[in-house]
Amino acid sequence: MKLDAVCHNKDETAALGASLAGELAVGDAVLLSGEMGAGKSVFARGVARALGVDGAMPSPTFMLMLPRRAAGGLMVYHIDLFRLDGAAAFYDAGLDEAFGGVALIEWPERCVGAFGGARRRFHVRIDYGGEDNERRVAIWREV
């Protein structure tokens, strides 16, 4: 699976995230990379909403992980690794608990090697485009 897309606003970015949700199952990790403010949390919210998560979904920057129960009982974990450094920090913080549900992980490059416990890993790279709200998004599944 490899997809390249251009989104012109936040709604399109969230909708693209929602389109990935149908591919996900318990134990999967979505690894979201991109510059600050590129739309990683917007994409993650799109995935979570499509999985059946209701209610507020702030960025987990200051809390590291925000667990949410989706429709049908599925646990969705939104994780922000910006303030961590290394796989050991990931495991020391107990974040591997997220592999018991669907893990939406921002800044995975901060904890390289920490995601071996995931059943499958989907990579999402979001970059600024040429226009103000344009984003270039690449999605692929690690084989």
Task: Using brief descriptors, characterize the structure shown.
143 residues, alpha/beta, Rossmann fold, seven-stranded mixed β-sheet
Concise structural overview:
With 143 residues, the chain is α/β, with parallel strands linked by helices.
Q: How would you describe the overall organization of this protein?
A:
The protein has a single domain, classed as Rossmann fold (3-Layer(aba) Sandwich), CATH 3.40.50.300. Helix content is 21%, strand content 31%. The model has no long low-confidence stretch (mean pLDDT 95). The chain has three helices and seven strands; from the N terminus they run βαβαββαβββ. It has 143 residues and is α/β, with parallel strands linked by helices. It has helices at residues 10-21, 40-51, 87-92, and strands at 2-7, 28-34, 65-69, 75-80, 102-106, 120-128, 135-141. The radius of gyration is 14 Å and the shape is globular. The protein has a seven-stranded mixed beta sheet, covered by helices on one side.
